[in-house]
Amino acid sequence: MKKTIMDKSSWEGNCFLNFFNNKSSSGKDDKTIFKSKFTSPYKLLKGNYDQEGRCILPILHTAGGLVGGDLLEFEANIGINSKVLLTTSSAQKVYGSVGRSKINPKGTFSSQKTKINILDNSHLEYLPQETIVFANGLFSQEFKIKVSDNSSVLFTDLIRLGRSSIGESIENGVFRSKLEIIRNGNLCDDWEFVDQIELTKFSFEAKSGMDHMPVFGSLIWICEKEFPKTKITNLKENIKMIFKKNDNYLSLGTLENGISIRFLGNSSQDARKCFFSIWTQIRAVCGFCKPEYQGVWPLQDL
After folding, report:
1. In a domain, 4, yes or no
2. Which of 152, 191, 244, 260 could cross-link to 253 by cystine, CB 3.0-4.6 Å?
3. 117-136 residue pLDDT tens
4. Nearest to 89 by CA among 132, 60, 124, 126
């Protein structure tokens, strides 16, 4: 199939990560390491480790943003007995596409497809910085996460519609997101969480939608199947205390094995601080070490 002019200028980036535990026979060295393969615009910054041997890996998009037709594919395999924190070094920017081309005035979607497989006794925290959809930007993302029965995943997604500091909204842009979190069963797959969202100018302006508040966030935590229900109850009570100290719109939902949280407000900084506080509570209830702000995150969050 012939490529159009827009196709020739578009990025098609791929990134594959394979994490595994390198615990020695003596048991003295217990940390998660990784192998990688990637193409532009993906780039990996230097990873580091916390006191539990968790691999903390920041991912960089070197092009500075996405334009119509760009396609990013990301795949990660979290091996047995591994702990991983994936984050990004900057916000993901989606530039305007609608009305930019005489050939295709309706614009072209940029997209990102992510597949993650979490094997036995492993824990993934996926905590990227926000995605900013500029006026008339078109963006579609898909996440498919498979997790074993005795493993867990913490997933966050933070979206800003337009650059509100200069009075910009999403205009004729569209943001679409689909998330699937599935348990790998012996006989059949067990669906833990499925979510599908579309944000447009209508949903941004609607009183029953975002009501002109530009920042929307999701935090999903899926724990091990045998995780004590009493600990989840205690976690929910602690999160409700965080909500009382927050002036934004927040909701808390109980899943069969975990929790679901929504954020709606005007400040990305407020959303990050709120999610960090909840993340701290999740680490505590799991018996993990207290999280720390990463060096690649915005300084104003400190």
Report:
1. no
2. 260
3. 999 999 999 999 999 999 99
4. 60
